[in-house]
Amino acid sequence: MDNSYTITDTIYAEPDIFNLDMHGFQVIKNGRIGLHVNHKTKWLNLSSLADQGITQEAGFVQDSGFREFDIKTGRTIFQWWMSDHVPLSYSVNKVEHLDGPSPHGWNPL
């Protein structure tokens, strides 16, 4: 938007990101780069939850992360997903909704 709140451009999320958090969106580096928080459902291995009584081998999990991208081209520069770095077993939330359906699933956050 410009100073008169007229929309001057539109930015789209990647197709597999269902819940782009517009409150977590920032334009950085002199307007060239976008940074946003996002969420998506992933079908993940749940073997790390066996000691918590979870017998399913896999299930739908709500994953959260952030993405840095070139605003002009939409090309992803960097992205980070919680499930790639934080073990699911660290969650203190009740394990539920593993059967989805997508885009719904267990939210470990």
Explain what you see:
The protein is mostly beta strands and 109 residues long. The chain contains no helices and four strands. It has strands at residues 21-28, 33-45, 58-70, 76-81. The chain has a four-stranded antiparallel beta sheet with strand order 1-2-3-4, with no helix packed on it. It is elongated. The model has no long low-confidence stretch (mean pLDDT 87).
Please supply descriptive tags for the structure shown above.
4-stranded antiparallel sheet, 37% strand, 4 strands, mainly beta
Compose a concise summary of this entry:
This protein has strands at 21-28, 33-45, 58-70, 76-81. It has 109 residues and is mainly beta.
What is the H/E order?
A: EEEE
How many angstroms does the end-to-end distance come to? 33 Å
Task: Give the quaternary arrangement of the chains.
Answer: single chain
- Gyration radius (Cα, Å) is 17 Å
Q: Which helices and strands occur, and which strands form pairs?
A:
Layout: E1 21-28, E2 33-45, E3 58-70, E4 76-81
Antiparallel strand pairs: 1-2, 2-3, 3-4
